[in-house]
Structure prediction request, 489 residues.
Amino acid sequence: MFLIRFRSPGSRLVRGLVLPFLLAIFLPATLSANYNDNTPRPITICSGASILILGDPLIIAPGNYTWEMLQNGVWVTAPGTNNTTDYLASSLLNASNVDVVYNLRRRMTVLALPVYDSYYMVTVQPILPILNNIITAPAIAIFCGTANPTTINGSIPSSGNSTFIYQWQSSVDNISFSNINGANAKDYTPGSLSSTVHFRRIAISGGCGLTSTSNVVTMTVSALPTSPEVTDTKLSICAGTAAALKIKNPLPGLVYKWYDSSAKTNLLFTGETYLTDVLNQSKTYYAESGNGTCTSTTMQQVEVEVMPRLTNITVTAEVMSASSMTFRWNGVAGATAYQISMDNGLTFIDPSSGKLGLSHTVTGMKGKQSVAVQVKAIGVLACQESNSTKLNAQTPSEYDDIYVPNAFTPNGDGKNDVLYVRSETIKSLSFYIYSQWGEQIFYSNSVSVGWDGNYKGSRQPVGVYVYYLKAIMENGRELNKKGTITLIK
Prediction:
């Protein structure tokens, strides 16, 4: 160890000889190897970045530090915390749109003299906002049941340093978003979706740009509504009436629509109960359910069958004896039953041949007793009923027990096809039938031989014919009778 004596720093000897000598000896040993190297080392940072600019390493710490910045050719104290070994660059700001360069150095005091090292040329890049980070939904973004959407297109952002990194995110509630693995391209194509999902894109500038979050694109997937149920899939109404079509157990939140074809080209009504127009022919209707976005995959079909009114009934009467009379009528297509009335239609009962029978026999009558009968045919619907005109008939006297029907129907149906003279007390008979022009067209001398409506092999036309008969009764009395007969087809 050397002991060196020197005068006070103010002496010429110290100033001229001792101090330079000491600096020459001690500075290299106490400072870094770069203490006399003023070549700036370039670094690039972002404005305001919390980056530590390192001072050169020292062997022995000097008395103090001050970081300086070159400004207009003059070294001035650097902003921020500037009296530490290293310099925190967060105070180096750039509010412009272009890079700004700061020159830094570290000043130290050694033996009361300033010493400099740690020269830096710091390029501070501005922090620029990322603009035009916009994503666009595909043409179809609303789906029913499941979704296979096409690509969500993203714009090319601007500003920043024009180099961008993308990260697509998704959310089920449009609040909490999470990254989609591997979704780092400018555009994104979602996979198959079974529920509504929200998408957005994060754009990150490769330099000092801000992170930008795009708008949100929503792929809406609505549940398919259940197919509607109706109270009746097939209805029957009478011609000239309307039908009420009803949804069975309608669900809240669903809207029901009625159409006249499965093509849904003509919307008839929206609601749970549809009253059709007055119909004269059968028609089919279709109902669907919807929730405002989606409609049911299937439609409910309702068939409305228009039932015709039953045709009129023709009733004929034949006397079996002085104490009984049988009424017959033609069958009516579509009839499900027949009923008769003998009190001018006040009450109706089943005929004696049964509800599907085509005859009714009245017994317990007396000679010359009259009876009026009215027959109605009953269809599937009450409005189909068809009534006959009222027919009045009278039994013969118990002494002149002869009866000739006033009409018959020789149509080959096996019912009332032949006109007979009916009596149980005729001994001999002469029975003549004449046309409307007075020509005799039939003759019989037996109650077992009747007229079948033909003359010389030809069927005679519908119309009124005149008959004349001469009978010898078993009691020997001669009876002459004439009247008219109506031939009905």
